[in-house]
Amino acid sequence: MEPLLGELPLRFSRLPMFPFFDLAHYAASVLSLKEQRGAVEISCHSPIACWFSAMLYCFGGSILSSLMLGEPPVAFLANTTNVLLASSVWYLIFYCPHDLFYRYVSCLPIRLLVSGMKEVTRTWKITGGVTHAHSHYKNAWIVMIAVGWARGAGGGLISNFEQLVRGVWKPETNELLKMSYPVKVSLVGAVLFTMQHTHYLPVEVHNLMLFYTIFLVVVKVAMMLTEFRTSPFAVLENALGSFLFGFQPVCMKAKAKAKVSYNGGTPVNESTSGGETGDSVKKRHAKKTE
Amino acid sequence: MEPLLGELPLRFSRLPMFPFFDLAHYAASVLSLKEQRGAVEISCHSPIACWFSAMLYCFGGSILSSLMLGEPPVAFLANTTNVLLASSVWYLIFYCPHDLFYRYVSCLPIRLLVSGMKEVTRTWKITGGVTHAHSHYKNAWIVMIAVGWARGAGGGLISNFEQLVRGVWKPETNELLKMSYPVKVSLVGAVLFTMQHTHYLPVEVHNLMLFYTIFLVVVKVAMMLTEFRTSPFAVLENALGSFLFGFQPVCMKAKAKAKVSYNGGTPVNESTSGGETGDSVKKRHAKKTE
Amino acid sequence: MEPLLGELPLRFSRLPMFPFFDLAHYAASVLSLKEQRGAVEISCHSPIACWFSAMLYCFGGSILSSLMLGEPPVAFLANTTNVLLASSVWYLIFYCPHDLFYRYVSCLPIRLLVSGMKEVTRTWKITGGVTHAHSHYKNAWIVMIAVGWARGAGGGLISNFEQLVRGVWKPETNELLKMSYPVKVSLVGAVLFTMQHTHYLPVEVHNLMLFYTIFLVVVKVAMMLTEFRTSPFAVLENALGSFLFGFQPVCMKAKAKAKVSYNGGTPVNESTSGGETGDSVKKRHAKKTE
């Protein structure tokens, strides 16, 4: 496809993330933090917890991958410029008088732009993670996938502990139990770039980066415009799931139960998790009865 | 005893763990995971969380000791062969059609063999941990004990966080509050091998390995055959406990209370922990009253 | 001020912490552990959890800062003398017959001395943390503040996980959400010593150490003598808070609500956190209703 696209992929792969794309990433992250339930109240009575939470949202990926590779998790703080950038975005979004900045950023066109640019940074993060892991362990492709995934999904995977900073604790759910779309797509990306890096995928890295990014941005924008929430992998997942993991009697029963209760109105996961996580479920019921 | 046993201990200490003993360790670990409440449901609706949980069971020791020594906790993923081995054991035990493999492995004779071989790997893990810690800190015997213990007990000590992956959270119990037998025996082993390594114990390492392993295997098998659940250290513990820690008025009262309520039918720990861990206990009571 | 104070600051800055000040730090830490609700019961039925908890209290700062800088968190165990010192203090305070030692240490004059000396070690910890971070990252002042703070506040910042060891879990509160005085003053100290270290503060380090320590000790002793519990920074905080973070409509409402409910008798934080941390709050209400 070189002749077709010419220099474009190569030039694209040399796109600098700093400062504009980083800014967009920080803005999108802090926006999603502000839209968390109770985040605004936290921002009022303990700005430091709020700032810490925001940093976990913005730099979660690098923190997690550093922990995984036994490097200093505070390394990201050494990049003073980026931290100050993220902090000022956090300050403007949370504390700007009359929420002016928040309103401005969260109006649809700006929001689309910001979210699109954030998705671009995801590609860079994943490739960065894969290469970094490769520099530690030669051809340990599992490590490469893991670190690439951690770098790309970042905030999502440590959400339980990010919530803990804000005094929220939801043990009955985590991103491994019920993956959100960004976590899934980061995993797919990590696998692709690892395969490319270990030459199992006969594509040049800058072509892969271009097409993966286009996919990310298009899907993200489409998801935001249409209220279409189910992940584009749903079909693939179900096929793969029932092919690999579907042969177990209990699971088949669970699925059947799930279908029934789904027609009955309650979401699938609720019912399949009926027997699971005794305490948490009990708690949930308790809450309902309260 | 050299003439008596001849070459046996030396040859035994050169026994390779890979692949058969490792396989047994993975099988035993994944079996105990599958027998956790709610694990099967998890395996149905989120295989990735289940796989992650299984890896924590299989490689918990190396993960924990890496964290303690500031090394990359993902190092175990670099050993691709072992990870694939563990993963395939996990797959067969959880997703084999009609649970054939699970039924096969969990029938008593096989189970005895597997559990016995798993205990052998424990010795190797502990010695490995002690030597590894020694290579970091010369003669820091506390570190050697800690790392040896972590490597040997592994999964048990991080069980709270392993459960969190499956959406279960039981803060009111952990392996330090109420040690299980494997954790205890690993601690004893770590102490013994550290003393041997620092020459306070005038035994050759391969003799110690042989006798410690024999002890492990015999006790384990005995525990599985007879439904005898109390640890063989119970007597020693009580003696030591009341000698070292028994002189405090409150504890004496607690013990008295415990005895009473024990005759009354409720387990000791329940009553002694009466005042302790206010919230968790409240919760438990709340649940009962619900 | 050199002529005025002469050699005093310099000599003071060369004061050795080992063994007396360290001893005082261990005593004060273990005392505050023993005064935690339910700690004594734990000490009866699982001394190991209690010991581990005590070590987290005594060495929390060095553990946390090691984790942040990707160094072995067990490093503190390599300093056998200090660990044995702390352990014997722990043993005497928890298990001395008839609580003799505890009663002796917790009588006011001794307690004042011990607490005062503990505050002195705080200065040394903070300066140590700042210098140590500087040796890793040149002029990364955010890292220096973070590590200095972690080393100085230590136990407080990891309190959630220290409680977890004792089977207590209070997700709805942590030291970032609602800072205690020691955590605040450590943060201030970390900022000051970092500014001094990066030459933004034109003071010599030993002068700063002297005056910061005097401030710590005086405030601590005053707090213990008078039942005056509000932090000396309260005024400054409120001014700064309303100047920096006060312009947001929601916060103003929250503050108003807070004031009202405060006059109404319930504490501020309770009411401002009305919307926040849904679950935890629900739980708290549930408890009340129980």
UniProtKB/TrEMBL annotation, chains A, B, C:
Residues 263-274 have a biased composition (Polar residues). This is Trimeric intracellular cation channel type B. Keywords: Endoplasmic reticulum, Ion channel, Ion transport, Membrane, Potassium, Potassium channel, Potassium transport, Transmembrane, Transmembrane helix, Transport. InterPro entries: TRIC_channel (IPR007866). It is found in: Endoplasmic reticulum membrane. It comes from the Eukaryota. Coiled coil: none annotated. The chain crosses the membrane at residues 12-33, 45-68, 74-94, 207-226. Residues 262-290 are annotated as: Disordered. PANTHER family: TRIMERIC INTRACELLULAR CATION CHANNEL, TRIMERIC INTRACELLULAR CATION CHANNEL TYPE B. It is a multi-pass membrane protein. Intracellular monovalent cation channel required for maintenance of rapid intracellular calcium release. Acts as a potassium counter-ion channel that functions in synchronization with calcium release from intracellular stores. Activated by increased cytosolic Ca(2+) levels. Its main location: endoplasmic reticulum. Homotrimer; conformation seems to be controled by binding to diacylglycerol (DAG). Belongs to the TMEM38 family. The keyword Transport applies. It catalyses: K(+)(in) = K(+)(out).
